[in-house]
Amino acid sequence: MRVELPDLSAMEAFGRRIAMRVEPGDVVALSGTLGTGKTTLARAVIAALGHEGEVPSPTYTIIETYDGLRVPLVHADFYRLQDPSEADELGLDDYREEAVLLAEWPDHAGGFAHEAGCLSIALEKVGDGREAVVSPGTSWQSRCP
């Protein structure tokens, strides 16, 4: 499925649609080259889940956690990982327990597309806007945004 995201308001609306459907244990895997809007979409999802205030990019911390939302959320940016085994060293499984994982650069952590609860979103630049190529895991089939 392809979703056109011509501007920031479309990206925010897409983030709200995702946020309405996520459940604990899900992974929203965001891929795309630098500057395609992965962090922008992540921020839209986090805000739509009820977070008020700034959402820092986890580029340097790698993992940011958000409790007190509609569902607990872990926002991870795996860009700096050199090997997928480093995700295990971070204790990623402990963070994911009963939470949604919002993963930027998921391939750097070994990928999550094999999981039934993974919603893979590849963002691409299209003119001045973006396009999302959405691939839902089996548990997302009936609730795809």
Automatic annotation (TrEMBL):
Keywords: ATP-binding, Cytoplasm, Magnesium, Metal-binding, Nucleotide-binding, tRNA processing
CDD domains hit by this protein: NK
Chief localisation class: cytoplasm
Localisation per UniProt entry: Cytoplasm
InterPro entries: P-loop_NTPase, T6A_TsaE
Record bears the keyword Nucleotidyltransferase: no
Pfam family, any one: TsaE
NCBIfam families tied to this protein: T6A_YjeE
Family: Belongs to the TsaE family.
Record's protein name: tRNA threonylcarbamoyladenosine biosynthesis protein TsaE
